[in-house]
From TrEMBL:
<dbReference type="Pfam" id="PF00067">
    <property type="entry name" value="p450"/>
</dbReference>
<dbReference type="GO" id="GO:0016705">
    <property type="term" value="F:oxidoreductase activity, acting on paired donors, with incorporation or reduction of molecular oxygen"/>
</dbReference>
<dbReference type="InterPro" id="IPR036396">
    <property type="entry name" value="Cyt_P450_sf"/>
</dbReference>
<dbReference type="InterPro" id="IPR001128">
    <property type="entry name" value="Cyt_P450"/>
</dbReference>
<dbReference type="InterPro" id="IPR002403">
    <property type="entry name" value="Cyt_P450_E_grp-IV"/>
</dbReference>
<dbReference type="GO" id="GO:0005506">
    <property type="term" value="F:iron ion binding"/>
</dbReference>
<keyword id="KW-0408">Iron</keyword>
<keyword id="KW-0479">Metal-binding</keyword>
<keyword id="KW-1133">Transmembrane helix</keyword>
<dbReference type="InterPro" id="IPR017972">
    <property type="entry name" value="Cyt_P450_CS"/>
</dbReference>
<comment type="similarity">
    <text>Belongs to the cytochrome P450 family.</text>
</comment>
<feature type="transmembrane region" description="Helical">
    <location>
        <begin position="6"/>
        <end position="23"/>
    </location>
</feature>
<keyword id="KW-0560">Oxidoreductase</keyword>
<keyword id="KW-0349">Heme</keyword>
<feature type="binding site" description="axial binding residue">
    <location>
        <position position="431"/>
    </location>
    <ligand>
        <name>heme</name>
    </ligand>
</feature>
<dbReference type="GO" id="GO:0005789">
    <property type="term" value="C:endoplasmic reticulum membrane"/>
</dbReference>
<dbReference type="GO" id="GO:0004497">
    <property type="term" value="F:monooxygenase activity"/>
</dbReference>
Length: 488
């Protein structure tokens, strides 16, 4: 009798707890019933979709998001809304919503509290501080350094993409050049004074891969399993490699005479802030690692995609070449003034990152229920904004896979809703490196396209042939291979 009452009390307790759990999340369930999404089984939801494995990450996310403009999906008890309607995205990003907890969860073991994943109490001060190092005056002064690195990249292309039918993937080569550019500009150190650059880059790649693998193992969302997993051990090791590299950069920097003309350059300024106790040493190391990674991880696929797309579209390539030739002469290096006038090249870059945004998805967390243009989003909802889909809405971007830089003529831009094009995100957590990214990509492409004609994009005939893979960034599965010949 006594045993029976104990068992039934326990059962009542479990039932009450379950009902309370369901009651607390009732708005999530209501929202889930209201919106379409992939089929879900009891308890596991749509976790079966993850069996496609990491190699299919991009296609899996696209398959889930296909019910747009709003799609709901459960992975076990975890609920997500995917949204991709421009007006909804605009409203959401301009509200003071914060980043999803998944950024810190997935990236925090290696990058700790760096800006991309920092909690609000740390982020505000750091963002304000770092913003100053990306103002126009500072970034514009990088043109000579970008040009020097772009010329080195062009020399590499000369060696590997000319006179061969089997050129290598340019991804690693562009990435390496971008790291050199980051060292010259953000860190103000000579790249050849550093060792272990290759290890830093390879570790950055390993990092992205391990984050992606974790996503496909939903049980690793539970801290108990995560803390005991080999992937976590790997991420802690990765964090150590990042930290050691930045320590090396700082040591080299401190062995050099102080450069009084570049006080606002990223690392110089952060070191000064550290000296004045406005930034902790941990903060300095985290931000240094993040910035050297961010500066090349997102720009590399964008430059690679632009080269491939121009290889596929000779008439557009010719127009870019004409513009560059008109604005530059052979005797002088590129100047800021002439780069600023390369409007057609800028449109080519914008169109490239429309079709292939380097950051295909971003995540947000909603603390309070909000009304979007066409539906409500319940509190405590994780939202995935699909930039890839946003950029391919046929009613806003007719024939979305057509590579047409003139979509970015000012009169065309004016016709579109503001939230239709967000390669750099929007709102308080948008990309801090927009100016740096745009200027460096223009210089890199101007130098390459002035020197070479891209004859062909190997592996692809049409834009539709370019299949994407997602790590943290969107990267073409088959890479970026082109054949070139000298212009002169
Ligand atoms: C084609 C180039 C680039 C693209 C498409 C891009 C895109 C983005 C996007 C979409 C975000 C927002 C992420 C989110 O909302 O969750 C972001 C954040 C960020 N980006 Fe970029 N980015 C690029 C280049 C750069 C460069 C060159 C740097 C630095 C030199 C940089 C540094 C950052 C940082 C630090 C953040 C985090 C900002 C914060 O959370 O406050 N990015 N980027």
């Amino acid at each position: 009798m006594h045993q029976f009452s104990l068992t039934s009390t326990f059962l009542y307790f479990i039932i009450a707890l379950t009902l309370y759990f369901i009651w607390k999340r009732r708005r999530l369930y209501y929202c889930s019933f209201k919106h379409p999404g992939p089929f879900g089984f009891p308890l596991i939801g749509s976790a079966h979709l993850l069996t496609a494995g990491p190699a299919e990450s991009y296609n899996t996310l696209m398959r889930i998001a296909q019910y747009s403009p709003v799609t709901r999906v459960w992975f076990g008890p975890f609920f997500y809304l995917f949204i991709s309607k421009p007006r909804d995205v605009e409203i959401l990003l301009n509200k003071s919503v914060d980043k999803s907890i998944y950024y810190a969860k997935y990236l925090g073991d290696a990058l700790k509290t760096a800006l991309l994943i920092s909690p609000p109490e740390i982020r505000k001060g750091r963002r304000k501080l770092i913003n100053q190092t990306f103002n126009s005056n500072v970034v514009n002064s990088f043109v000579p350094a970008f040009t020097k690195c772009a010329n080195r990249l062009a020399d590499e292309l000369d060696k590997v993409c000319k006179g061969t039918n089997d050129p290598p993937d340019l991804f690693d080569i562009i990435m390496k050049t971008y790291l050199d550019a980051g060292c010259e500009t953000l860190a103000d150190v000579r790249p050849d004074s550093l060792y272990n650059k290759e290890k830093f880059l390879a570790t950055g790649y390993r990092y992205q891969k391990s984050v992606k693998y974790r996503f496909f193992k939903p049980h690793l969302n539970i801290d108990f399993f995560w803390k005991r997993s080999s992937l976590r051990k790997e991420q802690l090791e990765i964090g150590k490699v990042f930290e050691d590299f930045i320590k090396q950069v700082i040591a080299v920097k401190q062995s050099q005479p102080e450069n009084k003309n570049s006080k606002k350059q990223f690392l110089n300024y952060l070191l000064e802030m550290n000296k004045q106790n406005n930034l902790t040493t941990d903060g300095l190391l985290e931000e240094g690692a993040l910035m050297l990674l961010a500066a090349n991880d997102s720009t590399t696929p964008a430059v690679g995609s632009a080269l491939v797309l121009l290889g596929m579209h000779p008439e557009i390539q010719e127009k870019v070449y004409q513009e560059i030739s008109l604005l530059t002469d052979d005797t002088q290096d590129l100047t800021l003034q002439c780069v600023n006038k390369m409007n057609y090249l800028e449109r080519v870059i914008k169109e490239t990152i429309r079709i292939f945004p380097s950051v295909p998805f971003i995540l947000r967390k909603i603390d309070e229920e909000i009304e979007l243009d066409s539906y409500f989003v319940p509190a405590n909802c994780e939202i995935l904004i699909s930039i890839s889909q946003l950029h391919r809405w046929p009613d806003i971007w007719p024939n979305p896979l057509k590579f047409d830089p003139d979509r970015f003529l000012p009169e065309e831009v004016e016709k579109r809703p503001r939230g239709a094009y967000l390669p750099f995100g929007a709102g308080a957590r948008n990309c801090i490196g927009i100016k740096y990214a745009m200027l460096s990509m223009k210089v890199f492409l101007a130098v390459i396209l002035k020197r070479f004609r891209i004859l062909e994009a190997i592996d692809y005939k049409r834009v539709e042939d370019i299949e994407m893979d997602i790590f943290l960034f969107g990267i073409a599965k088959k890479g970026y291979r082109i054949r070139v010949e000298d212009r002169n």
